Automatic annotation (TrEMBL):
GO terms for cellular component: cytosol; peroxisome. GO terms for biological process: isopentenyl diphosphate biosynthetic process, mevalonate pathway; sterol biosynthetic process. It catalyses: (R)-5-diphosphomevalonate + ATP = isopentenyl diphosphate + ADP + phosphate + CO2. Performs the first committed step in the biosynthesis of isoprene-containing compounds such as sterols and terpenoids. Residues 17-190 form the Diphosphomevalonate decarboxylase-like N-terminal domain. This is Diphosphomevalonate decarboxylase. Pfam families: MDD_C, MVD-like_N.
Length: 421
């Protein structure tokens, strides 16, 4: 290794997307290694709208491993962080930086500490899978810094040990997490089914539903389901294996009706498993249920599915529209039912790809107020509005996998000190 009295810091910055499962992971067969009871399939979301940026650094002056999340120092003592760090360190390779005169041998990594700074461009722990993007980014960035020779699949097996769903964020587009059979977990990895260009008609609208922080984390919720739900056993053994094959086929053929039918059914079954858990777990709320009814009614009135919905362990709705025209119509309907609270401006109510607003013909709040009631419900139920029940919407699309950011200005750590900027 280079002269330790010399001050040097080597850094890598990466950006990693989050993902939403369309066939859900719910239940572990091994809690420590995070091995699931069934395969799952997800769509990676566009990192322009939802992503984690992480800078990792190494330097001889660092006294211990440290991490800052969204500007605040957090502890790395938890077993999930420790497992990821251990798995990466033991695979670290040689690194040479001629410019800085630094040479790090394989063995040197055991005596070097890392600094990690990470930033989520969306709310952390709000049910938007920050842990998925976060752990995937941590593993991806450290693997680059430490020159791991492992391929993306092997990296996904390390990210999996931070948070199960994180393994799917190592790729863009459509991703399958293969549950694997091996007790070591070596075959429980993510693979890409299709890249983000494959089905580029799809548009995704997320309704972030107002709620208190969730009472049951995914980790403890799925543990309770494994212990008490018979439906979970049936789902993992009989239902998901068939659905996985059908979903793969639907994605391959760009078959939206099948895709939507499978995604909605799987989300509903996952929430049924939560209800079948003792004591029952309620992740969705009245707003979530309303959104399901609106989408179901609209799909039925059109004769073929226009929009798929899916809900993770929380009340937020993720809606996947078959194309941009449908997404614009969907956003119009959603804004009709869930207008913003007084004092909220449109700019902070619709986030992400705001250009869809123009397609709906909405330029300001006045236009939202004058939206016509969706025709499919006019005669059936009074079209009541639920002002303030949605915190905000995010318009996005399927996106790419992790990338390295070479622009030094995007680094979150100071290149001289290795401390947050
Ligand atoms: N950028 C990040 N880097 C590393 N770890 C992160 C990052 N962001 C979040 N995490 C980890 O994930 C935890 C939050 O996970 P949690 O499952 O509670 O919320 P979520 O992933 O946002 O929501 P959900 O799992 O319901 O979709 C944080 O406490 C932290 O440990
Ligand atoms: C409902 C889900 O979002 C559950 C995600 O669970 P996590 O990956 O957050 O759980 P841990 O592995 O315990 O960290 C479905 C999914 O993403 O497949």
């Amino acid at each position: 290794m280079a002269d330790e009295s010399k001050k040097w810091v080597l850094m890598v910055t990466a950006q990693t997307p989050t993902n939403i499962a369309v066939i859900k992971y719910w239940g572990k067969r091994d809690e420590t290694l995070i091995l699931p009871v069934n395969d799952s399939i997800s769509v990676t979301l566009d990192p322009d709208h939802l992503c984690t940026t992480t800078t990792v650094a190494v330097g001889p002056s660092f006294q211990k491993d440290r991490m800052w999340l969204n500007g605040k120092e957090i502890s790395l003592s938890g077993s999930r962080f420790q497992n990821c760090l251990r798995e990466i360190r033991c695979r670290a390779g040689e690194v040479e930086d001629e410019e800085k005169g630094v040479k790090i041998g394989k063995k040197d990594w055991e005596n070097l500490y890392v600094h990690i700074a990470s930033y989520n461009n969306f709310p952390t722990a709000a049910g938007l899978a920050s842990s998925a993007a976060g752990f995937a980014c941590l593993v991806f960035a450290l693997a680059k810094l430490m020159n791991l020779k492992e391929d993306q699949g092997q990296l996904s097996a390390i990210a999996r040990q931070g948070s199960g769903s994180a393994c799917r964020s190592l790729y863009g587009g459509f991703v399958k997490w293969i549950m694997g059979k091996d007790e070591s977990g070596s075959d429980s990895i993510a693979v890409q089914l299709a890249d983000e260009e494959h089905w580029n008609d799809l548009v995704i609208i997320i309704a972030v539903v107002s709620s208190r922080q969730k009472e049951t984390s995914s980790t403890s919720g799925m543990r309770e389901s494994v212990e008490t739900s018979l439906l979970l056993q049936h789902r993992a053994k009989e239902v998901v294996p068939k659905r996985i094959l059908q979903m793969e086929e639907a994605i391959k053929k760009l078959d939206f009706p099948s895709f939507a039918q499978l995604a909605c059914a799987d989300s509903n079954q996952f929430h049924a498993v939560c209800l079948d858990t003792s004591p029952p777990i309620f992740y969705m709320n009245d707003t979530s249920h309303r959104i399901i009814s609106y989408v179901e009614k609209w799909n039925r009135s059109e004769g073929t599915p226009q929009v798929a919905y899916t809900f993770d362990a929380g009340p937020n709705a993720v809606m996947i529209a078959r194309n941009r025209n449908v997404a614009a119509a969907l956003l119009g309907k959603l804004l009709y039912y869930f207008p913003p609270q007084e004092g909220t401006d449109l700019n902070s109510y619709v986030l992400g790809d705001k250009s869809i607003l123009k397609d709906v013909g909405i330029e300001g709040l006045n236009d939202v107020e004058s939206l016509a009631p969706p025709p499919e419900v006019k005669d059936n139920i009074p079209s009541q509005k639920y002002k303030g029940d949605v915190s905000y919407f995010i318009c996005t699309k399927p996106g790419k996998g992790p990338v390295l950011l070479s622009d030094k200005n995007q680094a979150l750590l100071d290149p001289e000190t290795g401390l947050p900027k």
